[in-house]
């Protein structure tokens, strides 16, 4: 018996699970090589071990392993599967009830006055509760944070953190200060000359916010959350245009400061385009773009507004730089670009290549699969592409089990950004696994709330002001 035949015999008798990448595996992690067996390279080329046999052997071994023991990651996935069957039915039903495919009217801004604080898109007008009631009984006491029924600017940061699960950066509050200097009576609409309005967490500063009504605390996590906004993206400014343009802070971890401010046109596509390091730099870019398209009559007031913004920023040492150092550093840490192009960042060890591996399919192949699922005329026609997607998900879950958490996060983001209704439960499964493993539980709460009532509308306030 030759050496090669001996190696092949040893490989066949090895009871470990075959590595999905076979002889092409690039993993250097010792734990990976202890758990999975790898075939002799030449034997793979000769085809003596077929891919189908490897998959079958792997599935048999996985079935045996599940009887004896389940890893912590698998336990999380099992919990998520149980949640899909029981708890997610209502969430998916709500999503289906609120998505109107190919309906042009769903992408139009509801006609209303820019000066009005009222909204016509509040969810379930019956049985609403006040914002004040959400502050009672928690870590926040109304008496400490209020004056004459209004939230004090000095304590707004804690209120926002309590209600929206995120902390806003200093430039967020500085922009409100700037807008107040422009229009003290109505700071949230101070930028209406360029068709912009402060929304989302900025509504905390709105008149009568403390007595405004909302369905429940979870609903606030959907407040001005557009259709393609992942939990890492928090909208703070919207444009009153039909393309659904809006701006928001992007952060890779809920406990970290935002790495940039980005924009998305919700009525156009899922692309999230980083603009600048902070909200002032972002507005400076937007004002510049507006000036190029403005009529002679419009140019003067826009130019004056831009100059006021620059002066305000200069006095407070606020940078207007577009590609700041931290944005460039984040770009180097991005492990996957994703469909929305903003990319994702996870802990990744370059030496061991632990933390992320590529998906089992390319972006174009995944998009093709999702297109087939979306265009399927009936459930039967959807089975084949859905089974192929399930295999991609299975391999991504295995990657997570081997500590490549970024793979399931990437796939979850891609399916979310596709907007395909039929895979929304899979989105929540994948992101549940990813955010639990990455210890980003607040993001999981946000995306869960979003998927319960994900809407293509451009009027996305959930707060009813009196």
Automatic annotation (TrEMBL):
List the source organism.
Answer: Bombus terrestris (Buff-tailed bumblebee)
A single Gene Ontology biological process assigned to it is: DNA damage response
Question: Record's family?
Answer: Belongs to the HPF1 family.
Spell out the coiled coil positions from the record: 302-330
Listed name of the protein: Histone PARylation factor 1 isoform X2
Q: Where are the transmembrane segments?
A: none
According to the lineage, what is the superkingdom?
Eukaryota
The primary location reported for this protein is nucleus
Entry-linked Pfam families: HPF1 (PF10228), zf-CCHH (PF10283)
**Subcellular localization(s) per the UniProt record:** Chromosome; Nucleus
Q: GO MF terms on file?
A: histone binding; poly-ADP-D-ribose binding
Q: Which InterPro entries match?
A: APLF_PBZ, HPF1
Name all PBZ-type domain ranges: 16-40
Show the segment(s) annotated as Disordered: 57-77
Q: What are the Polar residues biased-composition ranges?
A: 64-74
Its GO CC terms? chromosome; nucleus
